[in-house]
């Protein structure tokens, strides 16, 4: 599937979707609330079949957070990047773990590192950080650690 | 809240495996719920060796951050460096000289063999056979010596840099690699004799830890773990980088989906890597080993993602640049992290004695998972 076709399809499904220019792979920004519906379609529609979520991560822009989903199809081999901006103070997005099970771990990591809450996630708790860790999210730009060196 | 150690209300037993356990090959902590000997649930607790490499990289320059990545998957140090170098080169739009590309592919494949050798020895040791470990290390030692001669290091090489490789290969390199190929070929049958054909070993591996192709994809498994379930996912084939579209090699696929299939994939991959090395070793072109780059690298504003095939699967390097000398955000999509997430699914319903065999065939390297 080529870039134009991908963009026109998704902008039709998701009214607020915006394509990014100058990216290696087709990249679209969508409103966070349309993610679960779009994700379902991307995985299930016959000419998309995005069955492999090969990267799920988050970027802290200080003013807001951006969730980034890298998707590909093991059948068609096309790659699509979906981004969703979330407000920094109340970052909530629907989980993708019911569609791609790899998201169970990846979302747990983003949850503890960036403080994004994934609604309907089956098991949203700390993964890498020690038990009892509360509040501060280490991968956020404003994180400071008085004891350990986190900056060179 | 996670399970508390002891007995649950159903009479199930909750126990710890690790973080200090010889079969987890590092500080992996599994909390296992057992019903008799049957596994009900495996809950990995990570982070014992978490160094927050991603955060550290945010304050390192594009030349510096590559050195940290050798410490992620230390058995694939070359390939980690390679992935980062490729990503920076993509941003800089630097063309890598042909000589450097050849050297990189050679080093990658040698690394893959060395990593699989270690896995093979450790895997057999997990199942109680001690001798294969020494056999594997006997051959692996040769690769380490070759690496040491050229890179000056045996484990954390830091040899690949943006634009090419750090130094030219040692004058003995080609000769020694060729003699290693001969040595490996002469010893490889021993591996099959000693372990693969062993009936006790086969009984412990076949039908254990089944992972279907759909689940392998859904859990984001890559590398030999997914290829053992028949999922074609070799990045060298689907998105070739460097020379991989010019050399002849097969993507090794097995359809069993069990521990034995994953074992066979890795074993056969070693042979395939030797084939690649054989095609490349005599054809290293003359010329520069490094492209000319500026002393201070600045990536343009934007995002860059590279995928490479490490010994464990697909490593993704995702750099978000704001145009400065350091990355704004960097994400390492490590193969072990996703492969481990499938362990719970694979292990449920199996006997606890088989868990170690399953973990062995996932080829977990803990620093790669924790980062």
How would you sum up this structure, described in words?
The complex is a heterodimer of chains A (152) and B (371). Chain A is an alpha/beta fold. Chain A contains three helices and seven strands. A five-stranded mixed beta sheet of chain A has the order 1-2-5-4-3, covered by helices on one side. In chain A, strands 6-7 form a two-stranded parallel ribbon. The model of chain A has no long low-confidence stretch (mean pLDDT 87). Chain B is α+β, with helices and mostly antiparallel strands and 371 residues long. Chain B has a single domain, classed as Cytochrome-c3 Hydrogenase, chain B (Orthogonal Bundle), CATH 1.10.645.10. Chain B contains 15 helices and nine strands. Chain B has a four-stranded antiparallel beta sheet with strand order 1-2-3-4. Chain B is globular. The relative contact order of chain B is 0.19. Classes of the chains: A alpha/beta (152), B alpha+beta (371).
Query: Could you please say which CATH topology of chain B applies here?
Result: Cytochrome-c3 Hydrogenase, chain B
- Mean pLDDT of chain A equals 87
The structure class of chain A reads: alpha/beta
- Helix-strand string of chain A: HEEHEEEEHE
- Rg over C-alpha atoms of chain A, rounded to the nearest angstrom: 16 Å
Q: Strand share of the residues of chain A? A: 25-35%
In CATH, the architecture of chain B is Orthogonal Bundle
Give, in spatial order, the strands making up the sheet with the most strands of chain A: 1-2-5-4-3
Q: CATH superfamily assignment of chain B?
A: Cytochrome-c3 Hydrogenase, chain B
How much helicity do the residues of chain B have? 40-55%
What fraction strand of chain B?
5-15%
Low-confidence stretches of chain A: none
Shape of chain B: globular
Largest sheet of chain A: 5 strands, mixed
Proportion in helices of chain A = 10-25%
CATH top level assignment of chain B: Mainly Alpha
Distance between the termini of chain A: 44 Å
The two chains with the largest interface, and their residue counts, are:
A-B, 36 and 44 residues
Q: List how many beta strands of chain B DSSP finds.
A: 9
Shape of chain A: globular
């Amino acid at each position: 599937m080529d870039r134009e076709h991908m963009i026109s399809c998704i902008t039709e499904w998701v009214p607020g979707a915006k394509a990014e220019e100058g990216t290696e792979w087709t990249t679209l920004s969508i409103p966070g609330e349309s993610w679960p519906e779009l994700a379902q379609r991307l995985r299930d529609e016959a000419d998309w079949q995005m069955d492999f979520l090969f990267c799920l991560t988050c970027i802290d822009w200080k003013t807001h957070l951006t969730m980034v989903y890298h998707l590909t199809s093991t059948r068609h081999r096309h790659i699509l990047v979906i981004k969703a901006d979330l407000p920094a103070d109340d970052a909530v997005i629907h989980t993708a773990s019911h569609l791609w099970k790899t998201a169970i771990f990846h979302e747990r990591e983003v949850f503890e590192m960036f403080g994004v809450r994934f609604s309907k996630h089956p098991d949203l708790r700390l993964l890498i950080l020690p038990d009892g860790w509360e509040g501060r999210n280490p991968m956020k730009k404003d994180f400071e650690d008085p004891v350990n060196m986190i900056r060179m | 809240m996670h399970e508390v150690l002891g007995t649950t209300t159903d009479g199930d037993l909750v126990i710890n495996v690790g973080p200090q356990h010889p079969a987890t090959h590092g500080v992996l902590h599994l909390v296992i719920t057992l019903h008799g000997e049957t596994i009900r649930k495996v809950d990995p607790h990570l982070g014992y060796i978490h160094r927050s490499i991603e955060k550290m990289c945010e304050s390192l320059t594009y030349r510096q951050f590559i050195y940290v990545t050798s410490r992620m998957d230390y058995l694939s140090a070359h390939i980690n460096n390679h992935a980062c170098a490729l990503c920076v080169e993509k941003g800089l739009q630097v063309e890598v000289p042909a000589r450097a590309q050849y050297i990189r592919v050679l080093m990658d494949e040698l690394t893959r063999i060395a990593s699989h050798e270690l896995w093979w020895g450790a895997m057999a040791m997990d199942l109680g056979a001690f001798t294969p470990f020494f056999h594997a290390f006997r051959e692996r030692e040769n690769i380490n010596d070759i690496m040491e001669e050229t890179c000056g290091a045996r484990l954390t090489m830091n040899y690949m840099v943006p634009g090419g490789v750090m130094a030219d290969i040692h004058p003995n390199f080609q000769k020694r690699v060729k003699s290693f190929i001969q040595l490996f070929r002469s010893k490889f049958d021993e591996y099959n004799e000693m372990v693969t054909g062993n009936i006790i070993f086969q009984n412990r591996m076949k039908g254990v830890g089944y992972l279907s192709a759909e689940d392998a994809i859904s859990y984001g498994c890559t590398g030999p773990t997914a290829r053992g379930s028949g999922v074609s996912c070799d990045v060298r084939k689907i998105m070739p980088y460097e020379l991989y579209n010019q050399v002849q090699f097969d993507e090794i696929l097995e359809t069993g989906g069990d521990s034995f299939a994953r074992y066979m994939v890795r074993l056969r991959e070693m042979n395939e890597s030797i084939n690649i090395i054989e095609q490349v070793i005599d054809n290293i072109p003359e010329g520069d080993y490094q492209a000319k780059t500026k002393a201070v690298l600045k990536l343009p504003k934007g995002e860059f993602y590279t995928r490479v095939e490490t010994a464990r699967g697909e490593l993704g390097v995702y750099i978000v640049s704001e145009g400065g000398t350091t990355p704004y955000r960097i994400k390492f999509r490590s193969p072990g992290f996703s492969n481990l997430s499938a362990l719970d699914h694979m292990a449920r319903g199996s006997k606890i004695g088989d868990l170690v065999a399953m973990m062995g065939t996932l080829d977990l390297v803990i620093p790669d998972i924790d980062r």
